[in-house]
Amino acid sequence: MDILPDKSYVWQYIESCAREVCAKSGYGEIRLPTFEVTELFNRGVGGTTDIVQKEMYTFTDKDGRSMSLRPEGTAGVVRSIIENGLCMQAMPLKLYYISNFFRYEKPQAGRSREFFQFGCETFGSDSPLADAEVIFLAADLFRRLGVKSVELKLNSIGCGECRGDFREALKAYFSERKEGLCDTCKGRLETNPLRILDCKCPECKAIAADAPKTVDYLCDKCRDSFDTLQRILSASGLEYEVDPFIVRGLDYYTGTVFEFVSNIGAQSTVCGGGRYNTLVESLGGPALSGVGFGMGITRLIAAMEMDGVLPEDCSAPDIYIASACPEARERAYLLARALRGAGLKAESDLCERSLKAQMKYADKKKAAYSIVLGTDELEKGEATLKDMLRGGAYTVALDPADIKAKMCNEAE
Fold this sequence. Notes:
This protein has 412 residues and is of the alpha+beta class.
């Protein structure tokens, strides 16, 4: 996936805002390897998921090991905290990542085989306050970026104690309607009937509309936790909707699950996450609860564009130093270097073009100011500073401090 300079500034802006929001809440950045041993995802993500069964890029390395490009972030984060002893640190452990991931699936709007996510993970707290914190962190980033079109949808899929009864109720319900299910969901009926609720097939969605609801089967502990989370969200003024069809697509989720959705097309989920209290232990670590989310950056950009809050491109040069003769070319370059040292974005000709071509380049790059250096300017030690955006011309010494001062005065 190519991200070209005319778009990369948007990505940089989002990443900067994400890091700012994380720093305020005490989250530290973790960077993960591009590929991992395949077994990590088989055990962590779940062997019955579409990711493991259909979408992973898997290969055998020279030592005969099965390796896979990372399809998601949480399993890798858990592997890292186990291997590096982060489980022994003071809790809660708060981590975030901004990384690219890979899934072999049908490319479409909002979905590509290489995609980028901003993700947050919190470990070591069973409290619904931790659930609320990661939800608020995502909401804070949307607010920081000016995105208003996203809606929070919330559910609880219960713990190991209460999910068994719900699973049996689902299995009984869908078994009576098995013939109407798609082939994939017929297989899920035996392995993981909860995943049928997440199927996008119209026939399966119609059947699932009247299926048993997870919230009707919660144990007292899960019910209390879910009620507390809703109370916290309501008290903060964050609007949400309880949606019983949100189950998320990964096997490791327990308890709270949530999505932030926007009307950006078929792939409307901008951010999704939830609680995974058994994942660390299942991958060989201690009993350590966790909760987190992944936010698709491409879909986030689509939501920003829909809301009209994309940032302006600030990469245009503050000033372009043109040379009208060969003798001025080196001086123009050195003056541009000095202006960069003074904190300005400055460019000069590197291609030995004519003055006319240089000025076309400066105009195309949307330079705010320009200076032309020729024989007279070199002899006098001064030149004309031209305002390329608003008009106007000012005499300045060939001194970075004088040029910068004049530009700043005119900008005010």
